[in-house]
Amino acid sequence: MFKRMLFAFAIAVIPATLMADEIVRYQLSEWKAKHIHNKKTAETITKTLTKLGCEIKKEQHNGHIDVRYRCPKWNELKLDTHENAHKWEKWLKEFHFKTVHKH
After folding, report:
1. Measured between alpha carbons, how far is 39 from 16 in angstroms, rounded to an integer?
2. DSSP state of 21
3. Looking at the 3D structure of the chain, how many domains does it have?
4. Are strands 22-36 and 55-61 parallel, antiparallel or unpaired?
5. 97: which residues sit within 8 A by CB, 6+ positions away?
């Protein structure tokens, strides 16, 4: 869980103008949801998904937070290394995104 939070935080520090050799394209056309019991984790995931250009809906009930998200249009992340591209691709797939990794 901590790795996911740390990885999600990393997007906040990646400059938008980063010169990139690696591109990860992503899309999620259908709504998906994460059921999160920790408020800080929910905030971090929400911020990350927002920075990725996703639509977000949050609801709190029964002791947890539902973060619903989708990204119907294809977007892309430009990354500096092949290793970072694979990390992001893995993270996106864990959140049910379709991905395409280009060099």
Report:
1. 27
2. S
3. 1
4. unpaired
5. 26, 27, 28, 71
Range of the domain at 69: 2-14+21-102
pLDDT in tens, 42-80: 999 999 999 999 999 999 988 899 999 999 999 999 999
Burial status of residue 52 (CB atoms within 10 A of its CB: 0-12, 13-18, 19 or more)? buried
Whether this model's pTM surpasses 0.85: no
Cα 39-3-61 angle, rounded to 5 deg:
20
The whole-angstrom separation of Cα 10 and Cα 14 is 7
Tell me which H or E stretch contains 103. Answer: none
CB neighbour list of residue 8: distance below 8 Å, 6 or more residues apart = 44, 45, 47, 48, 91
Token representation of residue 30: 């259908």
The Cα 20–Cα 82 span in angstroms is: 10
- Cβ atoms of 85 and 9 within 8 Å: the answer is no
